[in-house]
Structure to design on (265 residues):
């Protein structure tokens, strides 16, 4: 009986397909510039270190901040002008009510000549036009204010995009140096999430069919890990094979090769 068990286990091991996977960080991503600017600061000393909200790249935002101050001053003036125009409109509204009442009162009076009535009418129409023009001016100022608000938001985002920081990621590589000019889409840095590790293997069709029933062995040792995610469409580079990912606890050292086997237990 022991001999049969031994032979069975030996056959299982022989038929278990070996995969070799590079132990990678859980996530690798490249940060690219959203703006055109000069690199003022690039902290090479942070390469290989975990970031804790540290600013590791600073782009020139001097002109943005100058324009922001000018916009804020213009917005204050426009808001003040809006308040004044609102008072003028309020006064015109009261004035027009009086003039309409006066005109309605005299237009049927026989003691008033047509010249006097026409004068009252023209005065009323002129006041109405001034009232309308003031309202139009108020609306134009509000449009200007909306445009300035939009420009302000664009500048605030531009300033924010020029101060590059991160948390929970490790700065893997800097792509820029101080004094370099960057444009939108220029790669700035590579970041790595090393809170977990990831193994990528490519399964054959036969392995894909029953991988859930298999035990996972790493470097010949049975593990408690399982395949985290699989793609049910064959990979474009590894023809007829299907990508699978295994997420594991964070190792002390990344990038070594791990032998991965799916075995029957």
């Amino acid at each position: 009986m022991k001999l049969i068990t031994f032979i069975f286990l030996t056959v299982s091991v022989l038929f278990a397909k070996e995969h070799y996977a590079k132990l990678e960080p859980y996530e690798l991503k490249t940060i690219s510039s959203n703006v055109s600017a000069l690199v003022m600061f690039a902290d090479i000393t942070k390469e290989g270190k975990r970031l804790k909200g540290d600013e590791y790249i600073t782009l020139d935002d001097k002109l943005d901040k100058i324009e922001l101050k000018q916009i804020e001053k213009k917005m204050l003036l426009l808001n003040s002008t809006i308040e004044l125009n609102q008072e003028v409109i309020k006064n015109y509204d009261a004035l027009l009510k009086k003039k309409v009442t006066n005109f309605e009162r005299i237009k049927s009076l026989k003691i008033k000549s047509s010249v006097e009535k026409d004068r009252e009418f023209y005065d009323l129409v002129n006041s109405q036009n001034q009232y309308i023009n003031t309202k139009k001016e108020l609306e134009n100022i509000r449009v200007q204010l909306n445009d300035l608000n939009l420009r302000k938001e664009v500048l605030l985002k531009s300033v924010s995009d020029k101060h590059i920081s991160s948390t929970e990621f490790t700065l893997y590589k800097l792509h820029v140096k101080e004094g370099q000019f960057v444009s939108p889409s220029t790669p700035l840095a590579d970041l790595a999430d090393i809170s977990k590790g990831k193994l990528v293997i490519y399964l054959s069709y036969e392995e894909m069919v029953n991988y859930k029933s298999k035990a996972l062995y790493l470097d010949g040792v049975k593990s408690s890990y399982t395949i985290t995610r699989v793609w049910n469409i064959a990979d474009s580079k590894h023809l007829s094979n299907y990508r699978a990912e295994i997420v594991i606890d964070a190792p002390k050292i990344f990038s070594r090769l791990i032998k991965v086997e799916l075995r029957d237990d």
Observations:
- Residues 1-15 have pLDDT under 50 and may be disordered.
- The CA atoms of residues 159 and 239 lie 46 Å apart.
